[in-house]
Amino acid sequence: MRKSRYNVAIIGATGTVGRELVAVLDQRGFPLGSLRLFASAASAGEENEVAGVRIEELTGDTKLTDTDLVFLACQETVARVWRSRALDAGAFVIDLGAGNAGAPSMPLVVPEVNAAALARVREGRLVGSPDPAAIALAVVLGAVSQIVAIRDIVATVLDPVSLAGRQGIEVLEQELYDLLNGREPAPPRLFAQRIAFNVVPDVGGGTATLETRGEQVLREHVHLLLGDPGLPVHATRVQVPVFFGLSIAADLRLARSVTVHELESHLQSAPGVLLVASGGEVQGAPLPLPTPATVIGSDATHVARVRVDPEVPSVACWLAIDNTRKGSATNAVQIAELLVRDYL
Fold first, then answer.
1. Cα-flanking dihedrals φ and ψ of residue 71, to 5°?
2. Which of 30, 290, 301, 328 has the fewest CB within 10 Å, making it most exposed?
3. Beta strands in the chain (DSSP E)
4. Average pLDDT score over residue span 38-62
5. What is the spatial distance between Cα 325 and Cα 18, in angstroms, rounded to a whole number?
6. Across the chain, what does the average pLDDT equal?
7. What's the mean pLDDT in 239-251?
8. Among 323, 154, 314, which residue's Cα sits nearest to residue 250?
């Protein structure tokens, strides 16, 4: 039954994504009734500065009665338990975990790409927000595929440490502090190798096919979002010493030749895309290229350096996205907005 206000719970409310969820719900004017924020005992009693709501400790006795929407912004071990409990309580669940591709009862959704998949959610009441890199790629691939078929994708993804949550940020901070003070950092415990002043082509650990788990997740999520399980996706994910902001160098092989003007004209009007067109200027100076530092706080997928090779044919481009905001929190809230508008 449609309501004017909805009772919402966030599990994992003190993590980087959980805090951003609270901010995005507030900034987008989501029709909140009550808001409950859950975290571990270490954070219980703290007040979220945006919502003015105190953090509750998540325990085995926590009840989600009368909750309409539950956001899971927590580790998979926690999400696995509370996914079921929230569904048992009658809530709709939006899971921000990136490792759940292939669960038939949980469609993955990027509103600009496959909003129609939410029709499946009415019965199962469970929907996933995909891996941030898959969100950025799918927004651009969905737009390009409207004018020309894509034959395969080659992508190099530069992953910030915040994709590993607050712990990833703390590891990079400590390693930088140690090195800048002449000390050798502690042996790696979260990333495959030292990440400060380094780049590591190993995100998520290896699999039997020598494809890392992060690369496998990206491929699976792109397939699900585009509805094309046969599309070749060749990805290399690289952990870089950046706190926030994910970037991608993408090369798309196309079914026919296109011009830069044709592509840029379409991308300029594509939902969710912010294009820095070739030759773009502000007050006579070239527009700055999107970087992890410049996209923070943006809800768009930024696209630049669009180049075509008519001989192959192919298009190369550069993408950047705020992984914590659009890559996680905003995408989840956009899903919630569509749910309350069309399906609850």
1. -95, 130
2. 30
3. 6-11, 32-39, 47-48, 53-57, 69-72, 92-95, 126-128, 150-159, 233-239, 246-254, 273-275, 281-282, 285-286, 301-309, 314-321
4. 88
5. 10
6. 91
7. 97
8. 154
Q: 250 forms bridges with which residues in the sheet?
A: 155, 317
Q: Could you give the C-alpha distances from 40 to 14, 15, 97, 289, in angstroms and in order?
A: 9, 10, 18, 40
CA 181 – CA 196 distance, rounded (Å)? 13
218-236 pLDDT, tens digit each: 999 999 999 999 999 999 9
Helix (H, G, I), strand (E, B) or coil at 270: coil
Q: What is the pLDDT of residue 206?
A: 74
Alpha-carbon distance 24 to 332, whole Å?
10
Whether the predicted pLDDT of 280 surpasses 80:
no
Q: What is the 3-state secondary structure (H, E, C) of 72-112?
A: ECCCHHHHHHHHHHHHHCCCEEEECCCCCCCCCCCCECCHH
Q: Closest by alpha carbon to 146, among 235, 273, 234?
A: 273
Bond before 313 cis per omega within 30 degrees? yes
Separation of alpha carbons 294 and 304, rounded Å: 13
Mean of pLDDT values over 50-56: 88
264-286 mean pLDDT: 78
Residue 128 pairs in a beta bridge with 95, 108
